[in-house]
Amino acid sequence: MNFAGITDRGKIRQKNQDDYRAETAFNGEIMTAVLCDGMGGEKAGEVASALACDSFMFHAAASIDKKSTQNDMENIIKDAVAYANKVVYDKAMDDLSCFGMGTTLVSVIINGKKAAIANVGDSRCYLFSGGKLRQITKDHSYVADLLEKKLISPEEAKVHPRRSQLLRAIGTEPSVNCDVFGLKLKSGDRLLLCSDGLINSVPEEVIRNVFKSGKAPDKAVDELLRLALAAGARDNVTIFIAQL
Predict the structure, then answer these.
(1) Which residues touch 205 (CB under 8 Å, ≥6 apart)?
(2) Alpha carbon distances (Å) from 88 to 36, 54, 226, 233, 240
(3) What b-and-e string marks burial along 66-84, b requiring 16 or more CB atoms within 10 Å of the CB?
(4) Of 158, 42, 9, 172, nearest to 104 (Cα)?
(5) What is the DSSP string of 159-191?
(6) How far apart, in whole angstroms, are the C-alpha atoms of residue 139 and residue 223?
(7) 135 vs 139: CA distance, rounded Å
(8) 148: part of which helix (H) or strand (E)?
């Protein structure tokens, strides 16, 4: 398995409140990754994303092994998200400087050809397979809800004044519901985890073309970041790619 990630504050923001983690276990047979986009005043967003990443990885690493079934993996990733939510929420309640902080979270566990994916908020996971790019996760945002109900068009969504408003986030409530997805992967498949700083800067068609070019994950994340920065990157940009 080959993977790479990169994060950047972008062209406008003064701080980078995104974060990500990735590691392998059992001689590379299992890979776990998580990506978070924090929110909150001063450094609280940075704290939320770092805490969520660290606590998610700690819980997942302690639970997964080579014998884990698809169902096991989906339960493990769900429990790891719940644990991350508790850690971030408790910190926000205990530290006034962090009150009100939260973060998105998108994560993946890969065990052989099996994958479990979970998300909260609007950071996304995509699958690139057979030359096609498909969004796996569903955004938990006000605008995504309007789009699903067909109350606005995709063009209106891009400029909607409440397009950044989340309906779910890690750490803002004592508990949180995450979406969990199971995938069967093939050799050569790629999974992309990304914050909205990429999606809002680089069209999906362009992302697909980067994958179709066959660049290795480390070159692909560099290229996607370059494209996001060239487009103005008004938000932090974080990109993670894993290839079987």
Answers:
(1) none
(2) 12, 10, 32, 27, 22
(3) eebeeebbbebbbebbbbb
(4) 172
(5) H-TTTT-BS--BTSSSS---EEEEEE--TT-EE
(6) 24
(7) 10
(8) helix 142-148
131: number of Cβ within 10 Å: 8
Decide the pairing of beta strands 124-129 and 132-135: antiparallel
**216-235 as b/e: b if 16+ CB within 10 A:** ebeebbebbbebbbebebeb
Which residue has 């939260």 as its token pair?
Answer: 102
Say what the pLDDT of residue 141 is.
Answer: 81
d(CA 31, CA 11): 31
Model pLDDT, residue 58: 97
Residue 84 φ then ψ, to 5°: -60, -40
Write the Ramachandran bin of 73: left for phi over 0, alpha for psi from -120 to 50, otherwise beta: alpha
3-state secondary structure of 97: helix
Average pLDDT for runs of 10 along the chain of length 244: 96 94 93 95 87 98 92 97 98 92 97 97 97 96 79 76 84 96 97 96 96 96 98 96 96
Q: What is the pLDDT of residue 42?
A: 64
Backbone angles phi and psi of 114, in degrees to 5: -100, 140
Place of tokens 């109900």: 149
State the Cα–Cα distance between residues 150 and 153, nearest whole angstrom.
7
Measure the CA–CA gap between 223 and 219, rounded to whole angstroms: 6
